[in-house]
Design brief:
The chain has 3 helices and 5 strands. By secondary structure, it is an alpha+beta fold. Strands 1-2-3-5-4 form a 5-stranded mixed beta barrel. Strand 1 and strand 2 form a beta hairpin. 15% of the residues are buried.
Length: 142
């Protein structure tokens, strides 16, 4: 009977902590702990209940991971396409850094054309987006 309460308590703690993480992994593991506790009451064997709950948790985590990655690649490509061709404003120019304002926030950027002469306040166009750095060029060249 103590194994039932132990598994039930761990399962409830994991499910409640899932509220803060919003990843669904703790939810799956918490539910499998609750299932292990219920199976422990029915089967009177902690070994079978742990094995079955581990299988349920593994299958659930694989399914959640598949569903997260399935939607992730489609969203990433859409976000990159939305950035291209948008206008940015030059905020700061240093020897090694170019900062631009885009969509209400400041971004690191690099010039596509290294010979381009720019000043703070100039408008440029995004031509590429990699690793949270924008590649920009003159507004009349795309």
């Amino acid at each position: 009977m103590t194994a039932f309460y132990f598994a039930l308590t761990i399962g409830l703690i994991l499910i409640i902590s899932e509220i803060g993480t919003n990843s669904f992994y703790l939810l799956i593991i918490g539910l499998s702990c609750i299932i292990a506790g219920i199976l422990n009451l029915i089967l009177h064997s902690w070994m079978y209940s742990i094995i079955i709950s581990c299988l349920i948790a593994t299958i659930g985590i694989v399914i959640v991971n598949y569903l997260k990655n399935k939607n992730k690649s489609a969203e990433d490509n859409t976000l990159i396409v939305k950035h291209l061709g948008q206008t940015v404003t030059v905020v700061e120019i240093t020897a090694h850094n170019l900062r631009v304002e885009y969509s209400g926030s400041f971004w690191n950027a690099k010039l596509k054309n290294k010979n381009l002469i720019i000043n703070p306040g100039d408008a440029l166009i995004i031509t590429n987006f990699t690793n949270n750095e924008l590649e920009v060029d003159a507004a009349n060249k795309i």
